[in-house]
Amino acid sequence: MKMKRLKFYGNIRFIGELFKLGMLTENIMHDCIYRLLKACDDDSLVSLCILLTTVGQLLDTDKAKNNWIQHHTCESDSLKIDVNHKVFKKEQFKKQVMQSQLPPRNDKFQSNIRHESRRLPKDLPRDEVEIIAKMIFKEFLGTGDLDKAKTSVKELEGQTYLEVLVSSCINDVLEKSKKERDITGQFFHEMVKNNLIPCVAYFKGLSEILQFAEDMVIDIPMIWTYLAQLIVPVLIGGSVPWSDLIQVLQTSLEKSCCLKLLTEILLHAKIITSEADVARMWQSSNLEWSQFVDPPNVTKFLEDKELQITISPVNESQLTAPTSLGE
Questions:
Q1: pLDDT recorded at residue 13
Q2: What is the signed CA dihedral for 62, 68, 70, 74, rounded to 10 degrees?
Q3: Nearby residues of 266 by Cβ (< 8 Å), 6 or more positions away
Q4: What are the φ and ψ backbone dihedral angles of 291, each rounded to 5 degrees?
Q5: In whole angstroms, how far apart are CA 123 and each of 61, 85, 161, 327?
């Protein structure tokens, strides 16, 4: 996940800086390098590059080279075999998924064969679910074919890690265009509404992102706006309860961050629906602005954000029915 990766990379760079200050030994650094090499996944290799860029020059000594050869040459063959096995297994799985998505032949026999081939094993590992999720989402963004996306997501029914579909899609589209974020929000709405992604899985995947959102502000200053654009279609479409969303926001975010995201959600919802709907949304949440803003500053805050409607009486005649962005 993008949020976790960036935090992990920062920790690796921090370890390198500690070594440069003499607070860590060479043995520790060599052990870190060896572990990152042995992991042989993309994140570990990127981390290794960061670490070597930070401390490589200090470690490049004759003594270090001799020690490395002496301690690790005997394991090199088994390490290569392990790396090749992991790569082969991953490529075979990708090929299997790609083959399962080949277009059907017209005759009934071929259709039945295809149907059988698309039955995924139960309890796939998280990384394999993520591979499938990314392929489904990439195809959906390219074609916009929501019906086909529903069919593909249905094939993941019963998998343990369905929340990966949510977190990986958000990570993929977070820094793309507003149009793509709106489309992704609509994608989530349709999947949750049709119970292809259960509410529990949706909220779990969303929470995985929210827990690292504050750390991402420095790289994505507009992150609260972007997240709101992804959340609002699900909310105003009626596929997730507002009360449940509030609970997830409050448990996943610090109070100040929760305020920022709530504000952006209401502002974006006001554009999509009506002011009366936004007022009803807020008032039905049983929240008070004083829970997030010092009471003397509430009025000014609402004026600055143009959200005075949230504390005004709701005009029932102006309410609109829950609707998706696609309608």
A1: 81
A2: -150
A3: 278, 281, 282, 307, 310
A4: -75, -20
A5: 47, 21, 8, 36
At 53, the amino acid letter reads T
In contact, 252 and 207? CB cutoff 8 Å: yes
The C-alpha atoms of residue 166 and residue 164 are separated, in whole angstroms, by 5
Torsion 226-232-234-240 (CA) sign: positive
pLDDT in tens, 125-143: 988 888 889 899 999 999 9
Alpha carbon 90 to chain centroid, angstroms: 21
d(C-alpha 67, C-alpha 70), whole Å: 5
Using alpha carbons only, how large is the chain's radius of gyration in Å?
25
Helical spans, DSSP H, in 60-177: 62-100, 108-117, 126-143, 146-154, 163-173
Locate all alpha helices (DSSP H) within the chain, ordered by sequence. Answer: 2-20, 26-39, 42-59, 62-100, 108-117, 126-143, 146-154, 163-173, 178-193, 199-210, 213-216, 223-236, 242-252, 255-272, 275-284, 298-305
Residue ranges of the chain whose pLDDT lies below 50: 71-72, 74-75, 101-117, 321, 323-327
pLDDT of residue 154: 92
Q: Which two three-digit tokens encode residue 137? A: 């989402």
- What number of CA atoms fall less than 13 Å from residue 128's CA on the CB side? 21
* Cβ-contact 146, 185 below 8 angstroms: no
